[in-house]
Predict the structure of Molybdenum ABC transporter ATP-binding protein.
Amino acid sequence: MTLSLRITQAFDDFTLDADITAPDGLTVLFGRSGSGKSTLINAVAGLMRPDSGRIAIGDRVLFDSARGINVPVHKRRLGYVFQDSRLFPHLTVAQNLRFGQWFAPRGQIRAPLEPVAEMLGLTHLLTRRPATLSGGENSRVALGRALLAGPELILADEPLAALDEARKADILPYFERLRDEAGVPILYVSHSPAEVARLATTVVALDAGRVIRIGQAAEVLSDPAVTPLGARATGAMLEATVVAHHADGLSELDAKGVRLLLPRVPRDIGVTLRVHVESQDVMLATQRPEGISALNILPAEIREIRMGAGPGALVQLCAGRNLILSRVTRRSVQALGLEPGKQVWAVLKAVSVAKENAAG
């Protein structure tokens, strides 16, 4: 089910002007605070009426300023997951989930509670109340309630923002399962590159109310021109298959012909993962380094160099069939004679890739 979104909305400090087509899967609206992410998702939900434009899910039009169409919130057939879970404290988990079923369209067969509870790991929590749950468990209940409403689209506005890193790690696999198994497209707001790399099938990069890039996660995240959160937040997403687990605690992965060694990844051999590599962790050398501790030394070719406003620069590399970003200084670019087409070595310490950045 494709979401088509074309709206404009004027604010005091900028004008939101977006034209987006989001296919099936999980589409992430990605950018810094104030770029228009939440405004877009609230326009889809019907919580904000744009100045002009059109919003449709498949052939069903939710908003069209030219035709005077503005479908009420309760008739839009959407599930909304907020930053806070907004569960009913006096109801059990099962009762909160069943509340979502009441909003399933009339005449539509309601999704059964049990498979949803099992998919989200809630079966053993059904008799408990929200006050006795962790933040991650409450978020999973909110996600299940949205799914049981029988939506055509799920909206998630930074649903993990209020959680600490441990709780985020707990709930991310459930968003992956929802993306892969539920058959409901998801529009997801985030400012976390690691979340984007792990979850997104499509990324919409926003800056000051405008769309600067739309595409697959691997393409957008490795583009040096896409820095919605600044150079410090940049990184690339690699797809890699687990090929071996070694006795010294390292896992060996094949990323489209490139060998990577990482701290043990708890996945079976043959499983394909997404690996998020932060640009600040990638060093460059013009000759193959010898006598260093880093285990990942990858031959690469420079594709593009983007100089920053300050002392930094982003270098886009092609290693095998992977696009990788390296953040270095302008001085290093000059001293090493870096330029597009130059053959270099990308150096990545095995331990620099956090455990939660190799999953999916």
Remarks:
- The first strand starts at residue 3 and ends at 10.
- The chain has a mean pLDDT of 88.
